């Protein structure tokens, strides 16, 4: 008979697997979409009239220019790379099509201007995609915010007919949806135009008033004063003078007596006031649309301010590119590969480097090549990159070949290290399977308020502690083996106000700019000590990005690190061996996964206005004293960056403090 579970006060920590006994594997948070009243089955009501944003884009040249500048900087000259030649051929067949990049650009323009871009993927297998007008697209979601259907309706909503041929339903996988500037929980994005609607109206209205004033001043209005002060003038004489002035031109000569005086009407400094108002509205607009003034060719900006503005723009562009890249990969490229029984790590290369960046890189490589302390392999790598920067064709043929004997020696060393570590793992496994170890593993864990055995969440459900202990050890075994996904490994927790998608975007943004300071080599000496060169850091960034995005297992990520990055033994500054090459893929994978995940978590907390966080240690029999001592401590959010991981293989995390 199943033992009854009693609820008591307090909290215990359980694994993801344990939670499935009591909780459904879905977020509790709900959304409150406002459905279209008639017809209600069409989908969620648009937050504003998309036609209004479209008209502004069409009729206001400044807005049209800003949106197009943004789109050009986002799309640029990008390419998609995979290792498998067959996969590359399939992707090239789509991306090299004449309509692919224009369609992607049109999609981005729709997202920037209206907040929502939609691409029709129903003909994807024929290498055809089509951008749809957002004015006619509606999103239908459930109470959890999951998209159930996209509907396109080209008719009049007031005369809607569900059987109408003007209604075209799409399944979620048949549309690539791009929301830009979306409020958390909303179905549609806001784009750039509507949040700046008032400023745009002020700017357009002020411009019209300014030109009306110029028109009047250009007409040079004349005031004719008749008679002497204090004397009455015959109204007939005033009317006669007014009629004469109607036909006045620059060839008219006037001769009057002293009782008539002509004077031009002067508007004073009114024009200057309007100009200042227009300048104020202009700067409000470019601030609201996050467009640097230097990009619009406006103003005499010094080089320093121009560079700062460009850097700010690049950060904004990079964030948008991350979001767009994820949608293109998951909705367009990966389904195309999967349909051909292929699955590859996809790499996006955005924007070619500028001439200045290329020249700076050439100078740095040239100086390194002049050094007498670099190895032959390092020298060949630098020579190959230099040849590519200088567009020397065929350089790979004579520079890529390794020096005889060097690489063979490294391979032999790696095999020896692998064998030594394999023997070590066998000995460790035998030790774990001893009777004493088995007996120890069956000892139930004590109830610790707020603790978590390898998990990030606590729930107020108390259950049989022997059952909890059993699942703790099962979870521990999965963690050690690596047969656990990234999301389970770091146990991503939904936080009030945002969901996993928000968290994932924060992680991808962080990955794009992270410098991996603990792993990156600064010079040849660092490389000799086992740190990673620039090319390997780039590979690691791509591996982790795909791991988070596709929720790969720790073992999969570890294998990709092992197969793609040539790791060496890690030595300290005194030449003492710290880690063997064979041990490093596991440690790098687990440590960097937790570090990036927690940094992204802090970024998400910050975006949601959270000020304080609490340290949450992964309490179990394997918890080190350092992590245990930090458990439950509260920190200011801005002071928490860089604190986790506390050590290699650390699995601590943060939770928010209300």
Molecular structure report:
Helix 10 (355-369) packs antiparallel against helix 11 (376-389). The strands form 7 sheets. A 3-stranded antiparallel sheet has the order 4-3-8. Residues 1-14, 19-24, 400-421 and 436-476 have low confidence and may be disordered. 47% of the residues lie in helices and 10% in strands. The protein has 4 domains: 31-192 and 294-351, no CATH class; 215-293, no CATH class; 353-403; 442-657, no CATH class. 24% of the residues are buried. The protein has helices at 16-19, 50-59, 61-75, 85-95, 100-114, 197-218, 235-246, 270-288, 303-338, 355-369, 376-389, 395-399, 406-432, 435-441, 465-481, 486-490, 500-513, 524-528, 534-549, 554-564, 584-607, 625-630; strands at residues 12-13, 79-81, 116-120, 130-132, 137-141, 147-153, 167-170, 175-179, 222-226, 260-264, 347-349, 458-459, 570-571, 577-579, 612-616, 634-636, 653-657. By secondary structure, it is mainly alpha-helical.
